[in-house]
Every structure is written in structure tokens, then in C-alpha cells.
UniProtKB/TrEMBL annotation:
Coiled coil: none
Listed name of the protein: Mannosyltransferase PIG-V
Transmembrane segments: 12-38, 107-129, 136-157, 177-203, 229-249, 291-311, 318-341, 361-386
Keywords from the named record: Membrane, Transmembrane, Transmembrane helix
Keyword Membrane on entry: yes
Top-rank lineage group of the source organism: Bacteria
Amino acid sequence: MALENAARANSGIRLMVITVAAVPLLFLLSGLAVRYAAFASVSADPSLAAYFRAFCKWDCSWYVGISEQGYERFPIPGHSNVGRWGFFPLYPMLVAGIRSVSPFSTLLIATVASLACGYASCLVAWPLLEKNMRAYVLYCAFLMSGPFSFYFATFLTEPLFVLLTSCLFLALKRSNYLAAGVSCALLSATRPVGVLAVFATVIRMFEDHRAKGGSVSAFPRWLIGRPDLLVAILISPAGLFAYVLYLHVLVGDGFAFVHVQRAFGRVAGNPLLFLWDGLSYHPTSGWLPTAPQWSALTAIAGLGLSVVLAVRRQYGAALFCAIAITLPLTSNLASMVRYVVGLAPLTMLAAVLLSASRPTFAAALIIFLATCYFMTVMWLGGYLALV
């Protein structure tokens, strides 16, 4: 009887592993099919090469240039007067490394790599979602076959950013601070806001300290007495520091990634005023919200979900997401939809909330899959809110 029970348990574990691996793969394939159908409906050239080119919009072209040509020294006659320095190097470096040992084009490699990062993000999310199958299905559907799945099917940093963020919070969940520090270092070389994840690491350390009976006032002394924790904190901004040093050597300005933002129309201002201006930008005809309204509403929704994370005592994730939304919001609303979609704690929380009951789970799943086609068409058409 004991052997039979053990066999049944092993069989159940194998079935669960297969299911966890198969769910994101299913949505990956369905997302590819739906997005290609959307592409074929608006393109006269149905070839795969045209497909990859069509999805490479906005920042994608910058990452292709970095991967193939590196960062330029300013000025370069005949080139754009806007430097590539505002785009962080880790993902273009990875794609360039793969291209150096393979015969495939940059876009093909980047597309496959983005899909692979999305798939891996789903697998890492399984323990973060407390092995909640309904939430897991919704999360996988959202990333791989949902309304914004095109962000994870081209050369943008969101796929790698989501994967590294998920790895960081999984490491924190398991109190593996060295792995969290390495993940944060890689995040800080992927996007500027990635370095902010170090706050989540420190908060988790503080929570562990308090759980062991330590006082608030004793936390700094306890932290200093733990070299392993100090190393995890100190290596967290390593990617950002390395990029600053590189830019200093290349162009003589280590903060060129900040200063070049003016060339993209990003000037520091009051985030509340940017939100108000976006909400006040009413459509001239029809009832659909304008692109600024969509961006402002998305930012508000993201901040609202951050508050929910705090209420659920996920303080590190809440602070990271709130700052990661507010910081770019101090310049303007550009790319706000993409920034919010790329915050894994928020999309996981949304999946958990929507999976609370069978009706909301079914409705959300249907909406995710149904809107994939139409949002892909909007992306291909250059809809400004999706930049």
C-alpha cells in the first residue's frame, strides 16, 4: 500500500510538472498564431521576414542598432542627432552574443529570445503564484497570448525585465539574497528603473530580521554583521555602474543616458500635472479614449495595484512598482502602458485577483485571448499609447 501511494504521488508530481510546462507553451503557440493572423490581415507581404520587421516598432529599432553597431560617439555625420545611450545594454548584448555564433538575423534571434524569456517568466511565476493553477493560467495567457503579448514577441527589453524581476522576487521569497543581488544587478543593466529593486531586497531583509525577533533599531547593526547581505546589496547596482563607467569612457559623460532624454521630449515635471493633462486630453470625435488618456489611466491603475500589494503586505514589491511607475512619470506619459505591463508583481497580482472565482477567471481568459488580435493590429498600426 505504501508503494502504491508513493507511485500515485510520483505520478501526480509528474503530471503537475507536465501541466506547468505545457500551459505557457500552449499560449505561446496560440499567441504566435493570433498575432500572425493579425499581421496577415494588414500586410501585403505575408512572409516571416516581413512579419519580424512589422513587429519591430518604436524602441525596437534602437535595440537593433545597438546590437549590430554598438553605441555611437557623438556626433556622427549623416546619423540621427539623438544618441542610443538612453537604451540600456544587457539585452542587446545578449542578442549580439547569440548572433556572433549563429547564422540568423538580429530580429529572428531577438524574437526567439523574447518568446523564450516570456516562457521562462511563466515557469518562474508558478511558485510566486503559490501554485494557484487558475492564476497561473491567466498569467501565462496574459504574457504569451494576451492583449499586450506583442511586447514579448519582438526586440524590446520587457521580456528580459519581467524574467529577471520574477527571478529576483523568487529569490527573495526563498531568502536567497545573493541570487536576488545578482538579479538586481542584471536588472539595472536592462532598464534604468531596474536598480530600484534593491529596495525590495532591503525590505525583505528587514522583514526576516523582525521575524527572528530583532528590533527596528537593531536592524542596521544586524545588517552590518552579515557580510553576505551587504554583498547582496552592494552588487545590486553593478549593472548600472558598469554602464555609467562605459559611457564615461565612450562619450565623456557617464550620465548620457539621462541627459539624452531631452532629445526624446522628456523633461522633468510634476507627475500629477502629467496625469491631469493626459486625462484632460479628450477625443475630438467618438467615445474611445485618446492615447494620453489610456496612458494616464494605465499609470493610475498601476499605482492602484501597487497600493493593493502594500495592503497584502507585499511591501517590497509595492514600493518597487510604485517608484518604477512614478519615476518615468516625472517626465511624461510616453511608454506608460509598456512600463506597467512590464512590472511582473502587478500582472501577477491582477491574475490572482481575476482568478478568485470561476466566472471572473473565465471572463478574463476570454477577454485576454479575444483582444490579442485587435491590440496587435493597433500595435502594427502605430497606435501611440502602445509606444
